[in-house]
Write a structure and sequence with these properties.
Bound molecules: adenosine-5'-triphosphate
Strand order of the largest sheet: 6-7-8-3-9-10
Strand content: 25-35%
Helix content: 25-40%
Distance between the termini: 34 Å
CATH class of one domain: Alpha Beta
Radius of gyration: 17 Å
Number of strands: 10
CATH topology of one domain: Rossmann fold
Largest sheet: 6 strands, mixed
Shape: globular
CATH architecture of one domain: 3-Layer(aba) Sandwich
């Protein structure tokens, strides 16, 4: 469904991705793992067109994405739930959700989708008039996921959704991601929470210093000596 073909990415003169290739098949949960600075966020920012690859291409169902502006990427069905949630803090939960549905089909089906988001996250319904900046961390993550769902995505990319959350909330967020996949949305996840994400994913890629160095199913990588040593402290 989503194919990244040999991308190089730079910040100015500084190259941070080298020939990165991977694919995400329909209805899979695929995880990118790697240490701080390995290039995970850069990879999904490039898919979202916040960065432009210097070489290589990105395709969704065979159509090139890497020449489109960010709002067209969203309309194609690729949504990015960013690290740190990036809600509009002075706007209510409901207004934040509306910001996820500004165009086309998503706009036309806005209130129907909002009912679905409130069904997934009853807490957001209770807090729909509350300013997003006053929500707890877990509630903010729900609102960020809800805003992403409002664009009617085919594929959702999550950048460290568990960051800063208590363990019980981390499990809730991962359960929610599995439920979203069960409803037909493909998932690309960037995480440092390696054990839990490898246990829940279909396949994973390991990034090291801007290169893909390993790939496999979640269970294969959980058993891999290099992964155990580098990420699991075993
Ligand atoms: P983390 O989990 O710490 O966010 P990451 O794997 O997501 O790590 P990236 O954020 O993609 O890593 O960063 C990859 C490299 O690019 C790092 O060396 C980082 O310092 C560098 N980098 C990231 N953003 C910028 C930027 N705006 N300008 C210059 N260099 C950057």
């Amino acid at each position: 469904m989503l194919t990244v073909n040999g991308i190089d990415v730079f910040y100015g003169d500084l190259q941070v991705l080298w020939d990165v290739s991977f694919e995400v098949r329909e209805k899979e949960i695929v995880v990118l793992i790697g240490a701080n600075g390995a290039g995970k966020s850069t990879t999904i920012k490039t898919i979202s067109a916040l960065l432009t690859p210097g070489k290589g291409s990105i395709e969704l169902d065979g159509d090139r994405l890497d020449r489109l502006p960010p709002h067209e990427i969203i309309q194609k069905g690729v949504v990015h739930v960013p690290e740190g949630r990036r809600l509009f803090p002075e706007m209510s939960v409901e207004e934040n959700l509306i910001m996820g549905s500004l165009h086309g089909k998503a706009k036309a089906r806005r209130f129907e989708t909002m009912d679905y988001v409130y069904e997934l996250f009853p807490r957001l319904k209770e807090r729909r008039k509350q300013l997003a900046g006053t929500l707890s961390g877990g509630e903010q993550q729900m609102a960020a996921i809800g805003r992403g769902l409002m664009s009617l995505p085919k594929i959702m990319m999550f950048d460290e959704p568990s960051l800063g959350l208590a363990p019980i909330l981390v499990q809730n967020i991962f359960d929610m991601i599995k439920r979203i996949r069960a409803e037909g949305v493909t998932i690309l996840l960037v995480e440092q929470n390696v054990t839990q994400t490898l246990a829940m994913c279909d396949r994973a890629y390991v990034l090291e210093n801007g290169r893909v160095v390993l790939e496999g199913t979640g269970s294969e990588l959980l058993e891999n000596e290099k992964v155990k040593e580098a990420f699991l402290g075993i």
